[in-house]
Structures are given as C-alpha cells and as structure tokens.
Description:
The chain is α+β, with helices and mostly antiparallel strands. It has helices spanning 3-25, 140-143, 153-160, and strands spanning 29-34, 38-39, 44-45, 48-49, 53-62, 68-71, 75-80, 89-97, 112-115, 121-124, 128-138, 165-170, 196-201. It has one domain (3-201). Strands 1, 2, 5, 7, 8, 9, 11, 12 and 13 form a 9-stranded mixed beta sheet that branches.
Amino acid sequence: xxxxxxxxxxxxxxxxxxxxxxxxxxxxxxxxxxxxxxxxxxxxxxxxxxxxxxxxxxxxxxxxxxxxxxxxxxxxxxxxxxxxxxxxxxxxxxxxxxxxxxxxxxxxxxxxxxxxxxxxxxxxxxxxxxxxxxxxxxxxxxxxxxxxxxxxxxxxxxxxxxxxxxxxxxxxxxxxxxxxxxxxxxxxxxxxxxxxxxxxxxx
Length: 203
C-alpha cells in the first residue's frame, strides 16, 4: 500500500477515531438549583416588567483529562394553578448565560447562549468547572396587554395573580411538535412528576 495513503489518510483517520472514543468515555457532572420563590414585585423595574429574571443556576464539573461539551436541556416553563381552576399557560422562554444577564428593555442580552427553541452547548475544559445562569424571559402576553402596552403591577396581579407556581420541565426529544406558547404546557399532571416547581408570591 502506498505510504502516502497510509500516513496521509489512514493514520490521521485512526487518530481522530481514537480521540473521539477517548472523549466519549468522559462525562460531566451536572447539578442544578432554582430560586426558592418568585415574587411578582421582583419582576418590575423602571415601571415595567423586566425582560429577564434569574431563576437558577446549572453547575458543570468536568474531572476528565479532555474537554467535554454539555448540551443544554430543552425546558418548558409554565404558570400553574395548583388547584386546577386556571389553565396552565406558558410563562416564557428559558435562557442560559455564562455571565450576568443584564436587563435590556428592547432586546435580549447578548450573553445568552441557549434557549428552549435553540438548544446549544458549552465546552467545559479538562478538570474545570463552569456555572451557567438560568433566566426566564417572560412571554409577550405577560409583558404586554392586549393593545401592546406594558403591563403595570395591578394588571399583572389581576390577570396572573391566580397562578401560584412556576413549573419547569424538560421536553422530550420530539419537543418540536409543541407550539411554543401553548401545547408544551398542555400535559398531564403525571408527566410533571419530575418537574421543578418555584412558588410565586404577590410580594
């Protein structure tokens, strides 16, 4: 066999396969934690509902000797009435950030690295740790009234004060079948057995 083929094609291919196998042997330790509650008064700033509110963190630890890549989960965030009087509705979009997610009235912060409809990943270097902040971008219908005006606190309390918890759960691999603002929250209660729940208070 031609030496050029051996050293130019076969050997590099074997090296790539070997590195790929080594990389697949490692894993990232993942821990997540959410805030203990969300107060409706906390999501207001400058007389309007903020564009994002921090709801938790994801802690990633890679004790392997090679860098590892972690893919963000695809989550749905819904407002839930535990008594079942009000229909469960979408609370907004989950965002991920490696840094502080600064409030920007007119646009999303540029530090966002992933969301429920655009699942991305982050690299964790060998023997390193990384903290990813989890934010909720409130749904348009929550931020604005029927005529496109920003809701004030009284309107928010009137329209959404009956919901007492934020339910966060991971969507299935075929989450694309869900409509972003509706169907992903129309699931049976038994499907939310492993969901994370954050109490909502009025103040």
